[in-house]
Amino acid sequence: MAILYALVARGTVVLAEFTSTSTNASTIAKQILEKVPGNNDSNVSYSQDRYVFHVKRTDGLTVLCMAEETAGRRIPFAFLEDIHQRFVRTYARAVHTAQAYAMNEEFSRVLSQQIEYYSNDPNADRINRIKGEMNQVRNVMIENIDKVLDRGERLELLVDKTANMQGNTFRFRKQARRFRSTVWWRNCKLTFLLILLLLVIIYVAVAFVCHGPTLPSCI
Fold this sequence. Notes:
Helix content: 55-70%
Order of helices and strands: EEHEEEHHH
Strand order of the largest sheet: 2-1-5-4-3
Distance between the termini: 135 Å
């Protein structure tokens, strides 16, 4: 049997407990309750010989179990979470004012049943494994969302850079058109000057042949 002992306590006040075998687990558990640090929510484990005491503290309520070392951590902490939910759902606000062992007669039977279930029923580990996989998927989804957000920021930067590039391209095209226009006019002027120079050369040649600028011998 993987889980051998369990209790529910408020601080150091034990409200219910159950053991499936003859051990001094109750004594050790009470010592652990006195030494669990702080009042903040926490999940901790304490090794004792071949056994491990797993402790879950949530909202001032402590749920503890002793399990065989071979049980690992997944099943014991799934058991603790289950017990915590059942206890709070059953007793609600009475948890904060109840006397020691006030719920023991009734809730010890729940502890017994759930210890049996989590220790021997394969479905307990299967369901818990599915929950673990769901948590991993949730973590992966959050990580993926963070990556998407980060990629979105990078895309925004790229869009900004693209906008700048588009602005630069527009200015470049405008400057290119202006340059082409300047070159075209320059070419036109050069062509005109070349044509004018050619006409002058032709005129000088004809005037030389015709014996004067007024071309007296040719007219």
